[in-house]
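hiii so um. not sure if this is the right channel but i have a protein structure encoded as tokens and i wanna go backwards to a sequence. like what aa goes where. can anyone help
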């Protein structure tokens, strides 16, 4: 299957935590209720994933943060659940599969997203 998009992002965990403390409404704006309960490093990685998928989709205007939710499979493996604006953009690009990898270590969270057609 052809690759139709790739995105990567990194987040400084402490700085992201400071942003969440400074602007408490940011947590609800960026994350779904189930995502919002995660620990800080996990939130930072999920934010990196949302930024990475936006890049993989060509960073179009109008994507809604809640339309790209990271859920964990029973094995612990992360995967995206796309809906609304994000699902529509992925479909318009012909993306059939979304691969995501998250990591956080040494104060940095990162994510890579690959879209396959």
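sure thing!! here u go:
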């Amino acid at each position: 299957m052809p690759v139709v998009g790739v995105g990567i992002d990194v987040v400084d965990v402490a700085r992201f935590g400071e942003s969440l403390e400074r602007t408490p409404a940011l947590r609800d704006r960026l994350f779904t209720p189930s995502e919002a309960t995660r620990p800080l490093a996990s939130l930072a990685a999920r934010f990196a994933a949302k930024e990475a998928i936006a890049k993989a989709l060509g960073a179009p205007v109008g994507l809604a943060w809640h339309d790209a939710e990271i859920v964990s499979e029973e094995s612990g493996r992360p995967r995206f659940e796309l809906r609304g604006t994000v699902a529509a953009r992925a479909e318009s690009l012909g993306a059939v599969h979304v691969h995501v990898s998250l990591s956080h270590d040494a104060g940095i969270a990162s994510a890579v997203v690959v879209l396959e057609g």
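oh and The mean pLDDT is 97.
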